[in-house]
């Protein structure tokens, strides 16, 4: 694997994890949004990743080619019901349909995405250091 390929692989991971962090931040920002444009509570979103398939191998994917975002999905779990008869979105029985966002799970996912982002930065720095050391050999 060339140094440039390792940069591309890590860069694809950085891009994917950044989108994952943005999606998690959006979920956290809408954790209490009971009504969206379609009249329903906000639904949690998640990012689907896939290995990059460049078609070079008969088996499909070669290791180390990177990752790509396939889709941003919407969690189909039902909304949480909370009893609050004073809320403007409460139904006839006094229950409000709250988003299916669990803040603790989102924070764990955010920490995981941050660690993955940091790991890709470390890989880029290691590849850069190896390339610099290789150039110093020629001196």
Which residues sit in consecutive blocks of at least 5 with pLDDT less than 50?
A: none
- How many helices does DSSP assign? 2
Largest sheet: 2 strands, antiparallel
Structural class: alpha+beta
Number of beta strands: 4
Strand order of the largest sheet: 1-2
Strand content: 15-25%
End-to-end C-alpha gap: 24 Å
Radius of gyration based on Cα positions: 21 Å
Dominant shape:
elongated
Query: Helix fraction?
Result: 40-55%
Counting structural domains, the number is: 1
Mean pLDDT: 89
H-E string: HEEEEH
Describe this structure in words.
The protein has about 140 residues and is α+β, with helices and mostly antiparallel strands. It has one domain. The chain is about 45% helix and about 15% strand. It contains two helices and four strands; from the N terminus they run αββββα. The protein has helices at about 5-30, 105-135; strands at about 45-50, 65-75, 80-85, 95-100. The strands form two sheets. A two-stranded antiparallel ribbon has the order 1-2. Strands 3-4 form a two-stranded antiparallel sheet. The longest helix is centred in the C-terminal third of the chain and has 35 residues, at about 105-135. It starts with a helix and ends with a helix.
